[in-house]
Amino acid sequence: MKIIDAHAHIGSLPDISTTRRLILSSMRKYGISYSLISNTDGAEFPSLGDPNPKKLPTLTILKQTIAFHKAHPDRIGALMWIRPMEEQPTKPLIDYIKKHRSDIIGMKFHPYEEHLPIDDPKLKAWLELALQFDFPLLVHTAIDEYSSIKHLEKVCKAYPKLKFVAAHMELCTDNSFCFQAMKNCPNMYADCAWVPLATAIKVLREIGIDRIMFGTDNPVDGLDTLANPMYQEYFDQRNGLTLEEKEHLFYLNAKAFYRLSDI
């Protein structure tokens, strides 16, 4: 069975080239067919990697991500990390997106790393950009003040034509508030990065078999992120998932959500 990792990264962890190698080696080790990559060097206030990063614009970060995709087009997909704290979409960025639209799968926003909730007015231009190019958005959610699921729920309701992925289903919680928000917002999906398998199964069976996709945050947890017992439970053949649920969770949902026709 094919597996798509819908939430992985490159970045200065410790550097771009090292994380590229880590991603590819872990994909081989764990049978990951395709990984969706965003570039953490776009973080305004990084919690990992270089504590004093160069202030690189979204366009530069995007070009680095697309370079990885182009080097491995059958294995790596590019998500555009956005930096709304410092900038708005520029004409060169928009022109580049138009030229490379087929290489960009969607957008990534990390409220905690930007110290900015997604419902802040500074995000409006970026949400309008997502509408313009029909980009889905992967959004970090957690218990902190910037990443609370309540901010994403508000935006999901304000932008019903956009699709959002609640990464982590509100990290460091029991996921219950995210679960309810997904019920309230049909355009809110989730990934299972650091989400217990039992919660993922509950989403599949009580919200919809198409509403959650496999994701890992690889390689944020170090040299062998997927060796974490939480992910090993997903890989266990006796994990309680039906074959249909496995196919949707590991492959079909991400393929459909991100329109990955050739994967």
Strand ordering within the main sheet: 1-2-3-4-5-6-7-8
Mean pLDDT over the full residue set:
95
Please report which band the strand proportion falls in: under 5%, 5-15%, 15-25%, 25-35%, 35-45% or over 45%: 15-25%
Could you give the distance between the termini?
12 Å
Q: Please tell me how large the radius of gyration is.
A: 17 Å
Number of strands: 8
Major sheet size, sense and barrel closure: 8 strands, parallel
Following the backbone from N to C, one meets helices and strands in this order, namely: EHEHEHEHHEHEHEHEHH
Percent helix, as a range, is 25-40%
From the spread of the alpha carbons, the general shape counts as: globular
State the helix count.
Answer: 10
- As residue ranges, the low-confidence spans are none
Helix/strand-derived category reads alpha/beta
Keywords:
263 residues; alpha/beta; 8-stranded parallel sheet
